């Protein structure tokens, strides 16, 4: 499955990014209330959190398809997922540093690592997109 990328480093880092998406989607679908309470967020935001999980499910499925069919010609998809990831990082870092929202340190660290993985993979395969 990773052979379609013709770049082991890109395939591994994007595979790890996909695992991160799977983790967040499962967390947002199956542990929504617990995750919101743990981060001291009003449980009324459950619907919004699940919608966010649905959006990331779609992006994760798109990434899975690039593993099956190769990244060639998927420039718009990778720019889209990159924008979504960088926006997510910006929002979490804003809440962690500017608003001092409790419970966001672990998410800020995880999303920072996931963003780094995505950017490494993106720049490794950018010439093929």
Number of strands: 0
The radius of gyration is 15 Å
Specify the number of helices.
Answer: 5
Shape: elongated
What's the SSE pattern? Answer: HHHHH
The overall pLDDT average reads 92
| % residues in beta strands | under 5%
What structural class is derived from the secondary structure elements?
Answer: mainly alpha
Structure report:
With 129 residues, the chain is an all-alpha fold. The protein is built from five helices and no strands. The radius of gyration is 15 Å and the shape is elongated.
Summary, kept brief:
The chain is an all-alpha fold.
Structural descriptors:
129 residues, mainly alpha
Annotate the secondary structure layout.
Elements: H1 8-30, H2 32-38, H3 46-69, H4 75-98, H5 105-125
Helix pairs in contact: 1-3, 1-5, 4-5
